[in-house]
Write a structure and sequence with these properties.
single chain; alpha+beta; four-stranded antiparallel beta sheet; 4 strands
C-alpha cells in the first residue's frame, strides 16, 4: 500500500533539493523530491530512529 501523504522538510532548498517522507503504521518511506516516481526507501521504526540519531550527530 503506497503512503498517502508525503512531507517535505521546511529546510528544503527552493529548487527542491530535498527528500520527502511518508509515515505509515509499520514503516517510514523516503524518496527524492526531484524524482517522485523514482525509487522509495522504506525503513521500520527502529531504522528511522537510528537514521535520525545518526543525522543529529553530524
Amino acid at each position: 500500500m503506497p503512503p498517502t501523504e508525503w512531507r517535505k522538510s521546511s529546510y528544503s532548498e527552493p529548487e527542491g533539493s530535498c527528500v520527502e517522507v511518508a509515515f505509515r503504521s509499520d514503516d517510514v518511506s523516503v524518496r527524492d523530491s526531484k524524482n517522485v516516481s523514482g525509487p522509495v526507501l522504506q525503513v521500520g521504526e527502529r531504522g528511522w530512529r537510528a537514521l535520525l540519531r545518526a543525522r543529529h550527530s553530524w
